[in-house]
Amino acid sequence: MPGRRRRRSPGETDWPEREKSKKAKTSSSKRGMSINSAFNNKVCTSWFREYTTKDEKCLGPEGMEKFCEDIGVEPENVVMLALAWKLQAQNMGFFTHEEWMKGMIDLQCDCIPKLQNKLEYLKSLLNDSVTFKSIFRFAFDFAKEENQRSLDTETAKAMLTLLLGGQWPLHSSFSQFLDQHTRYKVMNKDQWCSVLEFSRSILPDLSNYDEDGAWPVMLDEFVEWLKEEQGQSHNKTS
């Protein structure tokens, strides 16, 4: 899950030594907790506090990096997107305490071992077509800048790679299309959701594409462009 870095605030590294020691002990104790122990709200909050300073109310990019390292998942792994969906996080690279608690209670995870034990479950959510559609739609709002209605194309391409790169045969062609058609600087939500529907319903050879269908102009132009590319490729080999 891509994160936005921030600079360390003044005094953030100047905690009293006893606070550092307490934090280390808390982290060590939770790492050893049994995955079969009952969920504990206080323990879950203490776990959240491992990734924030004493004055922060939100787990930010630096804390996210440490969190990902602790659970053994790369920030760019699609599992992190599934987790963010489970937490219903509003901003990429950030988890509020409220989001954390709501999601972790749902997952019944209050420590690292318990969440690690849920990673396969989170990954399996992506294999269910209905849940995947929900995560795909969530990704648009999650990745766009706050107060913006559209997603910039570079971020959209990165998120499409994360979500569809391994399962949509035309993904690389669509990415190339966006690279060449620079007038598409942003993608709105209708276009975003239509890409998923297109990837699920249109065959790689475009044989079932209906030119009179209610597709966004962007996808109509993509089909036209791809047919030209395929025709040129065919001419070169014949």
Mean pLDDT: 86
Helix vs. strand class: mainly alpha
What is the succession of H and E elements?
Answer: HHEHHEHHHHEHHEHH
Side-by-side strand order of the widest sheet:
1-2
The total domain count is: 2
The fold-level CATH name of the largest domain is: Recoverin, domain 1
Low-confidence stretches: 3-32
Explain this structure to me?
It is a single chain. The chain has 238 residues and is mostly helical. It has two domains: 17-125, EF-hand (Recoverin, domain 1), CATH 1.10.238.10; 129-237, Recoverin, domain 1, CATH 1.10.238. Helix content is 58%, strand content 3%. The chain has twelve helices and four strands; from the N terminus they run H-H-E-H-H-E-H-H-H-H-E-H-H-E-H-H. The chain has helices at 17-31, 41-49, 61-71, 78-87, 97-107, 112-116, 119-125, 129-143, 153-164, 171-180, 189-201, 217-237; strands at residues 58-59, 95-96, 151-152, 186-187. The strands form two sheets. The chain has a two-stranded antiparallel sheet with strand order 1-2. A two-stranded antiparallel ribbon has the order 3-4. Helix 9 runs antiparallel to helix 10 (171-180). The radius of gyration is 22 Å and the shape is elongated. Residues 3-32 have low confidence and may be disordered.
